[in-house]
């Protein structure tokens, strides 16, 4: 796997060069190997620049522990561990989906804010992180960006090493903030958490508590709190409700907490809806040496977007309907019933690999293997059964893959960034009758715009 991993990283590096020289021919992209060396410097040349005339606020995007950061971290979970966590997360999301706020202050007339989003490989996952500020004075926080969660939280002091996991930034200290406040137990804000098993803390009539258990078995608990959240210089969310966590257990480490972007009332999106209309978008970068973004608010320019209807399930999950798949420019013969799962396809920023119903996945795998028959197929690797040994080839020709959604919308996945991961096809089998999940690999380099108020989601290619 090490050799194929290196080769795919090089493919990622060279893709944009090749496309600019006409590399897409009849459903295939051939990538030259002469530039098969990773970038040595941070690159943000492909990040969309917001129009200053539209009174928007933009923050430069860097990967916290990648080449765009002032310091890097060599710690990295294994490929197998990343997939294990992703599979656990996908299973948890499926089980939930199958089961039956704050005032924003901006400068002048700002109507949107952009905050950083980065590939979080250095926080023991392939999830993405954003950099924000919390408290007064504002303290930097590095938070996992999660469309599959609602409640935002950070680790708070005091918290000893047995109760809190190690993180790169200092723990947030409520006692040092002039705007921090506990949310009282018997309030609407606290009662809104009751459905998640949270509420009044044990033995207390004054403190509202929270407790969250995640798919990988980790859990976080503490007190529900009120604070000022800084999204960018001069752009704050006052009375932002979040969890001040003082008891953690599990695989969480290094990042400071999580920002929830789901559809429930406690999410950041919902809490800022009066200012930003409940719309948000992001672009997930392909590599740590490239930058992405998270935007609160609708896009200034809608050109280039294609939109498909979207629904919100279980108050949290954003769901679209997959209607077809093509490989190398040819539509696969998949019976419509095989794609018409009851819950559709859940778009998730935290799941790595896209999971498809069995019939659809089998058709995709067969067509992709046929198109890649020139390259040696490796033995199955855990959840991956379509991986290649690309060592020794001077060029690699990768077939295009496109996903079609309700309304005639087609998402042409980035080649190879949105198709291959460590030399493996970035799809897997979800089971015949289970809802599918659109993972973050397929979303790479797209701006994904969630227009919750109008019930649609948009995709714009080549945004970062």
Automatic annotation (TrEMBL):
Residues 128-460 form the Peptidase A1 domain. GO terms for biological process: proteolysis. Belongs to the peptidase A1 family. Coiled coil: none annotated. InterPro entries: Aspartic_peptidase_A1 (IPR001461), PEPTIDASE_A1 (IPR033121), Peptidase_aspartic_dom_sf (IPR021109), TAXi_C (IPR032799), TAXi_N (IPR032861). SUPFAM superfamilies: Acid proteases (SSF50630). The keyword Ribosomal protein does not apply. This is Peptidase A1 domain-containing protein. It holds the Pfam family TAXi_N. The active site is at residues 146, 348. The lineage of its organism: Eukaryota, Viridiplantae, Streptophyta, Embryophyta, Tracheophyta. The keyword Hydrolase applies. Keywords: Aspartyl protease, Disulfide bond, Hydrolase, Protease, Signal. GO terms for molecular function: aspartic-type endopeptidase activity. Residues 1-22 form the signal peptide. Gene3D superfamilies: Acid Proteases.
